[in-house]
Design a protein that fits this description.
12 strands, Alpha-Beta Plaits, alpha+beta, 11 helices, Arc Repressor Mutant, subunit A, 27% strand, four-stranded antiparallel sheet, 316 residues
Length: 316
């Protein structure tokens, strides 16, 4: 079927078809565009005149492909491919001056606005440093979640809590957050009437609903996810620190728990953990006196750690 587009647009379509299907013939190009084989060859010639290295191979298995040249040919990305590039970059730790990070920024700046908005949203809401146990989610489902999140569309999800156990949820997808290589969906669950943090790799199906939503105006997605992760474990923790809130925040990262001011000179830490011995060791970074009010398991782990440190410091 012929496309009612300009010759320039058809030329770019030819480039995209050649990139996506190396070896495609002039006859196949013409069929895809709804033009003659001769017209398709003319569009290939236009690309070559623009110094784009289009190579051709003769014979029954020949066709066109993009070769290597002095100039990089324009690249065409679908929303899923564009987000896949962002996902690949976010898998590893990157610094502000990293060439891969800079290259990703250039790609995002020239993407069509709807695709760029979705990919940049994920890029900005991420904490680097991958967790070795992190699982990369499905790029197609992730692209859907990011797209509907930026469009503020209500969703219906199928979520797998554990193998063989799935349930449906109706949510407002506030943001997709990447933390330590793990992908999370920060959302409002209408089923639970509460805020939820879901693992994107456990989302099995996404369906857009008719409703829209407005996310909280003061929402910090990364902070909200880290706070949730710090408070959702087996042993509940409460620690009082003899220092102002601003000082305590320098010693306790958000992933360790939620800090709240008691008064001008004291701060409360609320958190949870599955491994009290590990958490007790992290508390030693606090540069002020502190008291563990709960849990008993953490108190016992702190006593054991103190005894080990005292024993290690004893000189024969």
């Amino acid at each position: 079927m012929a496309y009612d587009v300009s010759p320039t647009a058809r030329t770019l379509m030819v480039l995209e078809l050649i990139q996506n299907s190396p070896g495609i013939t002039a006859d196949q190009l013409g069929e895809k565009l709804g033009v003659s084989e001769r017209a398709a060859r003319r569009y290939v010639a236009i690309l070559r005149e623009a110094d784009i290295p289009i190579e051709s191979v003769r014979g029954p298995y020949g066709g066109y492909r993009v070769g290597r040249g002095l100039r990089l040919a324009p690249l065409m990305f679908t929303p899923t491919e564009a987000l896949g590039l962002v996902m690949a970059v976010l898998e590893g730790p990157r610094g502000a001056d990293d060439p891969v990070e800079n290259a990703l920024g250039k790609i995002i700046r020239v993407l069509p606005e709807p695709i760029a908005r979705s990919t940049d949203a994920v890029r900005r809401v991420s904490a680097r440093g991958p967790d070795p146990g992190a699982r990369t989610p499905d790029p197609g489902i992730t692209a859907q979640l990011v797209s509907y999140s930026t469009a503020c569309r209500r969703l219906s999800l199928r979520y797998e809590r554990c193998p063989g156990e799935e349930w449906s949820m109706e949510v407002d997808p506030w943001a997709v957050v990447v933390r330590r290589g793990r992908w999370y969906l920060l959302c409002w669950s209408h089923s639970k009437n509460d805020r939820r943090v879901l693992r994107v790799d456990k989302v099995r199906r996404v369906e857009a609903l008719d409703g829209t939503f407005t996310p909280p105006t003061d929402l910090d997605p990364l902070a909200a996810v880290e706070e949730h992760l710090a408070l959702g474990w087996k042993y509940k923790i409460e620690v009082v620190i003899d220092a102002p809130l601003d000082d305590a925040a320098q010693w306790i990262p958000r992933s360790m728990g939620r800090l709240e001011a008691i008064d001008a000179d004291h701060t409360r830490l609320l958190a949870s953990t599955d491994v009290p011995s590990w958490y007790a060791a992290q508390l030693t970074a606090i540069g002020a006196p502190y008291r563990i009010l709960s849990s008993p398991e953490l108190q016992e782990a702190a006593r054991a750690l103190g005894e080990r440190l005292l024993e290690a410091s004893n000189r024969e």
